[in-house]
Design a protein that fits this description.
alpha/beta; Rossmann fold; 2 domains; six-stranded parallel β-sheet; 17% strand; globular
Length: 331
């Protein structure tokens, strides 16, 4: 292996995807401790740099905007002029290998997508989506390093844990809602869960991000108790949210980016799962407990694997508030 000084990593997706990608970058930094890592990602996910010191620079590429082809062309020239020694891309599109080849970077790591990828990439890894996403991404570099970072690791100043506390983050990204990808229970269910936990003596804290304003508002309109702490709007970035999560004895959330932050922090986490596959999105650890509906849907988990939007019935998200609260209270 030639000396690696500059690494370009490419991972387009939301904040959750960037957190999944962190173990790959951490292992690369361990293998090449003096390397400079640049991450190319979507503008909506630039906050990942608030959570880690393993990323030296960012290249923002708006691959979902109106000028996406212009953006990709600009990115191609930026990569060619960046004098990178290695490029690692998480994309499973067949055109990725062509893009990496055109960048003129000597060491090119990507997924095998056919004979062309085998020809154009110097290292083509098998894409196995039926595993924890961190492991899936880490497969890209298994031929270059013996380091195996299994879970995300983030750099934040942890707070003292508040005894008997439950922090609740009910929201999901507005983009997923706009795409009709419903992944969590309605606000009225969250409100009832707060009532039940408070009634059992738990110190409940409620938080959320900018995308969760409507959800939080509806929760506040339906919750009966006043004996909880509404912290919505008090965290200004992902680092502050991570600090807040670190202060909770238990954390309840949806299938969203805060889940993966909690995993990285090692906080005891309870997560609502409906149409998505928890085996790919959470590690097999006792620190993370999934809460699912007692439905008999034969298609579950269906979102992304079998369909791109959720169905109208959403039986997989008809979870009783008592089941959610009891799971937290008894485990």
């Amino acid at each position: 292996m030639p000396q690696i000084k500059k690494i370009l990593a490419i991972n387009f997706g939301g904040i959750g995807d960037e957190i999944f990608f962190l173990p790959t970058l951490i292992s690369l930094k361990k293998e090449f401790p003096n390397s400079h890592i640049t991450l190319a990602l979507e503008p909506r996910s630039k906050g990942i740099k608030d959570l880690t010191d393993v990323i030296d620079d960012l290249i923002l590429v708006n691959v979902k905007g109106e000028n996406k082809y212009k953006e990709m062309l600009k990115f191609l020239f930026e990569a060619r002029n960046g004098h990178f020694d290695m490029v690692v891309s998480s994309g499973g599109n067949k055109l990725i290998s062509i893009l990496l080849f055109l960048m003129g970077i000597k060491e090119r790591y990507g997924y095998y997508t056919g004979k062309l990828s085998k020809l154009l990439l110097t290292h083509a890894a098998q894409l196995n989506k039926k595993q924890y996403a961190c492991s899936m991404y880490h497969d890209l570099i298994r031929t270059v390093t013996s380091h195996n970072t299994e879970l995300p690791q983030i750099k934040v100043e942890k707070r003292e844990v508040i005894s008997n506390s439950v922090l609740i983050h009910p929201g999901v990204s507005k983009m997923s809602v706009m795409k009709n990808c419903i992944k969590t229970v309605p606000p009225k269910i969250w409100a009832k869960v707060i009532d039940l936990l408070v009634a059992q003596g738990k110190k409940v804290m409620l938080t959320g991000g900018p995308d969760d304003e409507d959800c939080i508002k509806e929760i506040l309109e339906n919750v009966r108790t006043q004996n909880f702490e509404n912290l919505y709007g008090t965290t200004k970035n992902l680092n502050e949210l991570a600090q807040l999560i670190s202060s909770a004895e238990k954390f309840l959330c949806s299938d969203s980016a805060p889940l993966h932050i909690a995993v990285a922090l090692g906080t005891k986490t309870y997560v609502i799962f409906g149409p998505t596959d928890d085996t790919c999105l959470v590690p097999q650890t006792s620190q993370v407990i999934t809460i699912k509906a007692d439905d008999n849907c034969e298609l579950k988990p269906c979102l992304w694997a079998k369909r791109m939007t959720t169905c109208q019935n959403l039986d997989c998200l008809k979870i009783l508030p008592s089941k959610i609260a009891d799971t937290i209270l008894n485990s």
